[in-house]
Request: fold
Amino acid sequence: MISVLSTESRDITSEDDLMQIKASVKRIVALLGFSLVNQTKIITAAAELSRNTLIYGRGGNFKISVLDDNRRKGVQMIFADSGPGIENLDQALKDGFTSGHGMGLGLGGSKRLMDDFDIKSTVGVGTTVCVTKWV
Amino acid sequence: MEKIPILKIGKFLLITIQVDLHDKMILALQDELTNMIVKTGARGILIDISALEIVDSFIGRILAQVASCAKLLDAETVVTGMRPAVAITMVELGISMKGVHTALNAEDGMELLNDILLQDENAHDFSAIN
Reply:
């Protein structure tokens, strides 16, 4: 069974929030004992996904939890927005696809950087991305 | 707003990114750098990112754009000091910074810029002779 050891959350409404999210993710993954490479991957995924929430989701909410499955600890991050939603998820996960001005690497790239990746999106309702990485 | 200082050393502009980058800061840097190239006639730009803990697709894109702009203004760009963990993450993320030279540290980066500049001048001389 997976238990949640702690949770923090933050609204994403401005670029300052993106900086704050990076800082709190950094603090948490360092405490959990991730390798430097994995710390870098998780912080980068947080940067990509929080930016997506801000730009494409028009703001939203970020939640980070420390998990324990009795064998190892992990970190889970949830990015939720009530923006326009994504019409074609398969297309959005492909590298190079962007509906904005980015490079279109955010979703597909973050999926590669994390162990688990889950996305739910409904047009007109919003998008929720949940990613996890285990130590 | 904090600004990233741009130092002129000979024919080169030197930028050391020391703080966690705010979007507006790096966009301002792009503007100022292109202006500085024209104003000073700089032939090379060295951007040291050894203090950066992450390079996401946004920062990667701006660095690539800076290099493209510089190239159009007859200057080469070298990015130096990338941390190994950052390199691994960028590759997995899928960021390729086309047109950007890289070097392990600022000293190597300076040497690389000098070499490129020298090659360039030799090529000019050669075409002048013929």
About this structure: Chain A has a mean pLDDT of 91.
